[in-house]
Amino acid sequence: MSDSTKTQSVPMTKRQQKDKTKVKGYRLLMSDVHTWFGLLLGWLLFTIFLMGTVSYFNNELTAWMQPEITAVSKPSALPLSSQNSPNKAQTSEPFGVAIAHLQATQANAKNWFITKGPTSTSNEQRLHITTSADDERLRYQFDTQTQTAYMPRDTAGGNFFYRMHFDLHYMSVIWARIIVGIASMMMLIAIIAGVIVHKKIFTDFFTFRWGKGQRSWLDAHNAFSVLPLPFHIMITFTGIITLIALYMPWGGKVANIDTEQLFEGIYSYRAADATELQPAPMVDISPLLTTAQSEWQKLNPNYVITSVSINHPNTDHSKIIVDGKADHQISTIGAFRIYDGQTGDILEQSKPPPLAVTTHTVMIGLHAGRFADYWLRWMYFLLGGAGCGMIATGLVLWTVKRRRQLLDMDKPYLGFWLVEKLNIATLAGLPLAMVGLLWLNRLLPLEMTARAKWEIDGFFIIWAGSFILTLLLSSRHAWRVLLSLVTLSLLFTPLLNSLTTERGFLQSVLSGDALFISFDIAFFILALLFAYITYAVSFKKMSPKQKTKSKRRVASQIEIS
Amino acid sequence: MSNLVLSELLFLVNLLGMIALMITSKRHKDKFQHKLPLVSKGQGLRWLGFTLLAIAFLLTYSSYQIGYFVVVWFGSLTVAAGLVYLIMMVYEQLVRVKY
Fold first, then answer.
1. Which DSSP string corresponds to A421-441?
2. Which candidate from B22, B68, B74 shows the least CB-CB separation from A206?
3. Which residue in B26, B65, B67 is closest to A203 by CB distance?
4. How many CA atoms lie within 13 A of A221 on its CB side?
5. In chain B, what are the domain boundaries?
6. How many angstroms separate the CA of residue B48 from the nearest CA in chain A?
7. Is A206 in contact with B74 (Cβ distance < 8 A)?
């Protein structure tokens, strides 16, 4: 009997052992996946995440970078008041005023494009106008109540950060999007692998342990990753879905969709490309807008007209394109109507989208967060910031973990050296370049040719400069110098703003200019944050315990060799 | 209920829920056991925490823009957790400095 139990028990334990190693092996494997998928494109991912995070305030950044366009004086300081406007039928009125203004000033333009500014930075009465005559394009804002046109300075605006988020720069857009897509897919894999690797998601949910070196870094990395996990998964997944037709074009191929023909069909109405034009009077547009809006509102009471575009105004080819969107609707898809400019007949109008299209546009909407009012927008911003924190702590953790195993702290191997330098140049250099862009916006002469381009070039020059600085200095010094520079430049941005514009902090407070007050406060808070990081990097010495540990390790390594 | 009020309410209820969950969490409950008798009495407070989060989620249905407020719920859930986390970070640092 004892024999039989023996023979039975031996394979049992073997199998158990096998299972045990298998489980352990899987987690270890995932740990490697997490490390390398996160690290290899980590710096690009940090750039994408940071650009995306500030892009939640894209329009606000643009407004800050165009300080000569004064804020609309609002009766109430609450930015949300525009949502509750009871008289929605009146909202098409300002469009009528703007069209009359264009009729008086730009009657022969090729195209008029009038769009409602984002509700956050302007309100119903302030419209954005783009007209193009011949090859010249004119962009400005128009106040429909005071009949004033505001010409902004030539600036890259918040739009630069937004485009950089997925188009990068100095390269073909398609290639950039493919690279960004690959990075996002790696990020999604790293996130999922990270969830598998993390052993104590719930036990360590609220845990941070101070002053424990690698343990503290890991706790910070976990906090930045686990608490906003729903956001990270959502934002990465929807980010890929946004450009899914580029990454997975086979669906369209199988369905035999000729994309060129498709685009032709969609845009032929919208493009102003007719050549033989005869002058012809136009129909009165205001009643068309009112009926379009009221009919859309029958389907959804939140619908408002967001933009009116008129191609070849005052000719026999004139077309009126009206776009509308529902307030607070997550999906980015809206309704449109295209009218014949002479007769006012409907040529084409939107149909209810298929379910797959709705799903796609809801995901795009969730990603871009344009539907969000300020409360939710700030949450998007904070969670995006947490994402940047996650990538930053992850990248630093890679070096923290391996630094202890270094034989000689001052002469690390090439891979370690490269990761550390790239960390410094990205995590500290990129914020510096971004603040630098804001400074260039204020400092470059207003009459400069290609001013906006120089702002962007300046951004990259500063970034490259910080990389060179990183190579020249020791890592510890480079962290300290670059982070101090970020802190100081952030701290002095409000001062620079008050010196170069008439919208300094005091004036903003006196005139109740919520946008500029918020920016000054935000710069100050960010400066405090970077001051703390600088302090932590500069003055935190290695604890004596750690020092002796690493010394002992070095000694033992030397003995072995 | 106006949109802003509902957003703030969701945040507040989520925050209370997260505080309850933090107090009853394995790593923090020792700190509160002496001061809050409720903590030592089993799982009551933990259930209260989860219930509060669920109540906040149900509150999104009080608006006709449910989709919008579900997004707000997710956002405020995380931001509330982050706030509780930050408070505990500062608390532990203060305790560390004291000793």
1. HHHIIIIIHHHHHHHHHHHHH
2. B22
3. B26
4. 24
5. 3-98
6. 17
7. no
Q: Which residues of B touch A372 (CB under 8 A)?
A: 71
Q: Is the dihedral of CA A366, A349, A90, A110 positive or negative?
A: positive
* Residue range A191-237, pLDDT digits in tens: 999 999 998 898 889 999 988 888 999 999 999 999 999 999 999 99
3-state SS class at A497: helix
The per-residue pLDDT for range A391-414, each reduced to its tens digit, is 999 999 999 999 888 877 778 899
Question: On the CB side of B7, how many CA atoms lie within 13 Å of its CA?
Answer: 19
Question: Against a cut of 0.90, is the pTM above it?
Answer: no
Of the candidates A436, A426, A542, the residue with the CA atom closest to the CA atom of residue A489: A436
A227-249: per-residue pLDDT in tens? 999 999 999 999 999 999 899 98
Number of alpha helices (DSSP H) and beta strands (DSSP E) in chain A: 21, 8
Contact B67 A330 (CB under 8 A): yes
Residue A26 near chain B (CB below 8 Å): no
Nearest CA in chain B to A376: B72
> DSSP alpha helices (H): ranges in A501-513?
505-511
User: How distant is the Cα of B74 from the closest Cα of chain A, in angstroms?
Assistant: 8
Which residues lie closer than 8 Å to A233 by C-beta, 6 or more apart?
A: A188, A191
Structure tokens at A286: 């205001």
| Maximum mean pLDDT: which of A36-45, A302-311, B64-73 | A36-45
